[in-house]
Automatic annotation (TrEMBL):
Region feature (Disordered): 132-153
Keyword entries, A-Z: Aminoacyl-tRNA synthetase, ATP-binding, Cytoplasm, Ligase, Nucleotide-binding, Protein biosynthesis
Reaction(s) catalysed by this chain's protein: tRNA(Gln) + L-glutamine + ATP = L-glutaminyl-tRNA(Gln) + AMP + diphosphate
Entry protein name: Glutamine--tRNA ligase
Sequence similarity: Belongs to the class-I aminoacyl-tRNA synthetase family.
Biological processes annotated in GO: glutaminyl-tRNA aminoacylation; glutamyl-tRNA aminoacylation
Domain (Glutamyl/glutaminyl-tRNA synthetase class Ib anti-codon binding): residue spans on this chain: 351-451
Source organism of the structure: Paraprevotella xylaniphila YIT 11841
Leader peptide range in chain numbering: none
UniProt-recorded Gene Ontology molecular function terms: ATP binding; glutamine-tRNA ligase activity
């Protein structure tokens, strides 16, 4: 079967096309029935939600079909790589709920790759080119026009060996020469036109120090690393389709003279995850961090996994979204609103309900005894009885949302307006009696009277009123800063624009509300505990939060207001 027919037939069985291939290979007894995958990030940045899609595939398929997935740090370019990233990568994979078999490093194969390159040189299959990268690029030709051979193509083997050693000893300067595979300058696949396989980089490597100065290129490291480790299915994204013949070619070359003869990794490609209103390129994400356009890699507006975690996303929601979008052979732009829909569904089942008032105005219950405090029981999550309940204090003076009172309200306004009745959540029905204003006409206090017979849960308390409001007791709450996040970019596909991506940032992506109030119970929560501020949205305590200065992040609103606003 071709992969496209796989893609079509697999939908019927509920398997994605990669699973189909794996199942078929296992059935056919390929690789002695072994299944081994790898997740191969380059430690040059933090993982983003696109990586999560690859992680779910690489680890998920190994888990499902009894195989193993290893973590390979693809650390062949010391310029951008760092151990900081390695630790972050591990943390994010674990957070998503996956376990690797072993941890490998492409840098562990530098000697083997070097030896392989030397072998190719000795066999007349590689040569040192001393042209500039511009000259080499000019000679590449076009897909329909063959390239021009380098003047160095037929250099004697001895000279190639000598120069290759100089590339690594520091005698040759960075950029002065490269090693190229001698393949086919007329091949319709441009990747075959004598690809560069080694270059000089004069920078300490975070693991191998100054031992190496000649570093292998991706195409000369990836397939070989898969082969050395015994990977059976090397799953990657679609941009590697044109690299596959080269991947196979170098493995064929390598297999000659190796005893792992019956083993060969197979590259399979699926479509990338792209999300609206954000960018996924590590280069751009790094620029946002370095230039201070966001507050670090884990800024809750970033599409990084640490950003999502800090914002209050659950790993389950991200995995559910990845399941929803599926794996295909066609690149597409995935809707952020769909991710949020998956998130709301997951958090609805998970989040503890608490009360918080973001834009407070005082409500005084004028007929409620001064100094009286009632402890009301409120369920933590109506979706899950096992989550239990907690106590919220009720008293004469409460904070309510400013939007929940209107002096002159239109007919269908079911919140507080003089003469109207509402229920205060988990407490009593109150009737609005008026308000007090300052000299500018701003409402400073709202007044109401309560009906003592209407307490929630008491016999006869089921009198129906149209509105239910949340509140916190003025004497029993804590002030908090609340950070409201919006889309990081103001246009749907910033990656496709010609303008610089920095110009496309949404200036309103972060709004800080410095003076909110949360009920005491919310203040006892910690980062990574999922909360719903009733009637408002899902929230999580931020890592900046302290006992003296509480900080909460809005994860997502209760409803999708964005789609409505923009369509
Ligand atoms: P860069 O942005 O630096 O090119 P990258 O996004 O390719 O890097 P890697 O660290 O090389 O990042 O990626 C590790 C793995 O994650 C690769 O197999 C890659 O195919 C996969 N991956 C990266 N981005 C996405 C994405 N948006 N969707 C799905 N998989 C992705
Ligand atoms: Mg890459």
């Amino acid at each position: 079967m071709t992969e496209t027919t796989h893609a079509e037939s697999s939908e019927k069985k509920g398997l994605n096309f990669v699973e189909e291939i794996v199942v078929e290979d296992l059935k056919a007894g390929k690789n002695n029935g072994r299944l081994q995958t790898r997740f191969p990030p380059e430690p040059n940045g933090y993982l983003h939600i696109g990586h999560a899609k690859a992680i779910c595939m690489d680890f998920g398929i190994a888990e499902k079909y009894g195989g193993v997935c290893n973590l390979r740090l693809d650390d062949t370019n010391p310029i951008k790589e760092d151990t900081e990233y390695v630790e972050a990568i591990k943390e994010d994979i674990q957070w998503l709920g996956f376990k690797w078999g072993k941890i490998y490093h492409a840098s562990d194969y530098f000697q083997q790759l070097w030896d392989f390159a030397v072998r190719l040189i000795k066999e007349g299959k590689a040569y040192i080119d001393e042209q500039s990268s511009e000259q080499i690029a000019e000679q590449k030709g076009t897909p329909t026009q063959p390239g021009t051979p380098s003047p160095y193509r037929d250099r004697p083997i001895e000279e190639n060996l000598e120069l290759f050693n100089k590339m690594n000893s520091g005698e040759a300067e960075e950029g002065s020469m490269v090693l190229r595979a001698k393949l086919d300058m007329a091949n319709p696949n441009m990747h075959f036109r004598d690809p560069i396989i080694y270059r000089i980089i004069n920078k300490e490597h975070h693991r191998t120090g100054s031992k190496w100065k000649a570093y292998p290129m991706y195409d000369f490291a990836h397939g070989q690393s898969d082969y050395f480790e015994g990977v059976t299915h090397s799953i990657c994204t679609l941009e590697f389709v044109p690299h596959r013949p080269l991947y196979d070619h170098f493995i064929d070359e390598l297999k000659e003279g190796n005893d792992l003869a019956d083993h060969r990794p197979r590259q399979i490609e699926f479509n990338r995850l792209n999300l609206t209103y954000t960018v996924m390129s590590k280069r751009k994400l790094l620029a946002l961090v370095k230039e201070g356009l966001v507050n670090g890699w884990d800024d809750p507006r970033m599409p990084t996994l640490c950003g999502f975690r800090r914002r209050g996303y659950s790993p389950e929601a991200i995995r559910k979204f990845i399941d929803m979008i599926g794996y295909t052979k066609f690149d597409a732009l995935n809707d952020f609103a769909m991710l949020e829909a998956a998130l709301r569904e997951d958090l609805n089942a998970r989040a503890t309900r608490v009360s918080a008032v973001l834009n407070p105005v005082k409500l005084v219950i004028t007929n409620y005894p001064e100094g009286q405090v009632e402890e009301l029981e409120t369920v933590n999550n109506p979706e899950n009885e096992a989550d239990g309940s907690h106590i919220i204090e009720f008293s004469r003076e409460l904070w309510i949302e400013r939007e929940d009172f209107m002096e002159d309200a239109p007919k269908k306004y079911f919140r507080l307006t003089p003469g109207n009745e509402v229920r205060l959540k988990s407490a009593y029905i109150v009737k609005c009696t008026g308000c007090k204003k300052d000299e500018n006409g701003n409402v400073t206090e709202v007044y109401c009277e309560y009906d003592p017979m209407s307490k929630s849960g008491m016999p006869g308390s089921d009198r129906k009123v149209k509105g239910t409001l949340h509140w916190v007791s003025c004497g029993h709450c804590q002030p908090a800063e609340v950070r409201l996040y919006d889309r990081l970019f103001s246009i749907e596909n910033p990656g496709a624009e010609e303008r610089d991506f920095r110009e496309l940032l949404n200036p309103e992506s972060l709004k800080v509300l410095p003076q909110c109030y949360v009920e005491k119970y919310a203040a006892t929560k910690k980062p990574l505990e999922y909360l719903q501020f009733q009637r408002i949205g899902y929230f999580m305590m931020d890592k900046d939060s302290t006992a003296e200065h509480l900080v909460f992040n809005r994860t997502v609103g209760l409803k999708d207001t964005w789609s409505k606003k923009n369509k």
